[in-house]
Design goal:
4-stranded antiparallel sheet; alpha+beta; Outer membrane efflux proteins (OEP)
């Protein structure tokens, strides 16, 4: 029971909308593939990482835009409510010399109304950081795609585990319900025998207690099945109220057959390793960008415009004369000394690249260990399922034989109770082993990069 509850609880940490037309048609028949396909469209984590990809695409377009010409236009109209005056020595303008030197008089320099307009173009001729950013575009796009692949891989794994949890619990419930029917028949027969004086009250009570225990267990397993279905829908991104019906079945052959071939494995088959490689490459571009900061930058500026002044506001008339102007300029910026700031940035970026290399080496060791553990767990769980399957078959035979003896009057109901207890234990052990083996197989496939 503890293992079954654990199977249901693990999905709580894994979670849309379902079309209204589907709700109107009753329960949805879902295979494992259907559940995975649905989750890949509706699971919030998948939606989020796809939005991240769109954000990355927008950032790449922003980088591309920075390398293209930047064109802008400006315009302004000024109303000089009070035209500024300056004091001028008017003796400088008196050629006759009659005006004493130092005679000051106020003069207005400007007109009440002024207007100006201009268009400017700026083009980067050389900027190392922009060039590196353009080179890194494909790497950024690749990283966004791989992040989606990693998220989708995790969704496939989690949905598969949740789906098999429901299948195993459903099979366990079916077997317990079969036990209940057989035990009810034995209890009814014992009750009739007691009424006719061929059985003791103790025999009837013993089977009644066993029947109550079995009914309680069926209720618990039924609740676990319902919880498992709700948790499966939760991680699929499906509303809790959507009725579903799982169509797949689970047998030992599903666990034994079609095991992944581990031959020819390379680390980049694991998406998380591939993601880490791409992140390292992205940081190598970052290092290159900081190194390029030592180089000069060169921009060209082209500006053209016109202005005019007026005593009255007559700018709505197009027959007025405007005074045009224009210029072309080059802007060269040569970095000379930054107080060690650029060097520190380069050192920091280089250490970050080194850190990613260490992370890759650590991930390789982690993958090696994970593969060894997954292979060992799968072998052990397959042996456990084989053993528990044989034990379940034997327990069922013992129970059927014991019940037949009891019905023929040559056995006791105590033997029936003990056989039924043994059968329940064997069933629980078998289904737990079957579930563990299925999970081990999924973990094995994941460890060798067979689930993408």
């Amino acid at each position: 029971m503890k293992s079954r509850i654990t199977r249901s609880i693990f999905i709580l940490f894994l979670g849309g909308a379902i079309p209204s037309w589907a709700l109107a048609q009753g329960p949805l028949d879902l295979s494992l593939k259907d559940c995975i396909d649905y989750a890949l469209k509706h699971q919030p984590s998948v939606k989020s990482v796809r939005l991240d990809q769109q954000i990355s695409d927008a950032q790449n377009r922003e980088i591309t835009g920075s390398a293209l010409p930047q064109i802008s236009a400006t315009g302004n109209v000024t109303d000089n409510v009070v035209v500024q005056k300056q004091l001028i020595d008017v003796s400088m303008f008196d050629l006759s010399g009659r005006t004493p030197k130092g005679t000051l008089a106020p003069f207005e320099f400007g007109l009440p109304y002024n207007a100006a307009g201009s268009i400017s173009l700026t083009q980067t001729i050389f900027d190392g950081s922009v060039l590196v950013a353009l080179q890194a575009k494909k790497t950024v796009e690749e990283l966004a795609r791989k992040n989606i692949q990693e998220t989708e891989r995790d969704v496939r794994v989690n949905v598969s585990k949740a789906y098999y949890n429901v299948l195993v619990t459903r099979e366990e419930l079916t077997d317990l319900q079969g036990n209940l029917q057989a035990l009810q028949e034995a209890a009814h027969q014992t009750s009739e025998m007691y009424k006719n004086g061929f059985a003791e009250k103790l025999d009837e009570d013993r089977l009644s207690v066993q029947l109550t225990n079995l009914q309680t267990q069926i209720i618990a397993v039924g609740n676990a099945l319902e919880l498992g279905q709700q948790l499966l829908k939760f991680q699929m991104g499906m509303p809790m109220t959507a009725p579903v019906r799982l169509t797949d079945t689970l047998t030992f052959d599903d666990v034994r057959g079609d095991l992944s071939d581990s031959a020819g494995f390379t680390y980049d088959q694991r998406i998380e390793y591939s993601v880490l490689q791409t992140e390292k490459k992205e940081n190598e571009y970052n290092l290159k960008r900081y190194k390029m900061a030592y180089l000069p930058t060169l921009n060209v500026n082209i500006v053209g415009g016109a202005n005019r002044g007026s005593e009255t506001f007559d700018y709505l008339s197009f027959n007025r004369f405007w005074y045009g102007y224009g210029f072309i300029g080059l802007n060269l910026n040569v970095p000379i000394f930054s107080g060690g700031e650029r060097k520190s940035r380069v050192d920091e970026a280089r250490l970050t690249v080194d850190k990613f290399q260490v992370a890759l080496e650590g991930l390789q060791e982690s993958i090696d260990l994970e593969q060894q553990q997954a292979a060992s767990s799968l072998r052990n769980d397959l042996l456990a399922v084989s053993s528990q399957e044989a034990n379940l078959r034997l327990s069922r035979e013992v129970f059927n034989t014991t019940r037949k003896k009891f019905e023929d009057g040559v056995g006791s109901n105590l033997e029936v109770v003990e056989a039924e207890n043994d059968l329940k234990t064997a069933q629980t052990n078998y289904f737990n082993a079957l579930y563990n083996a299925m999970i081990a197989k999924i973990d094995y496939q994941r460890a060798y990069g067979k689930i993408q």
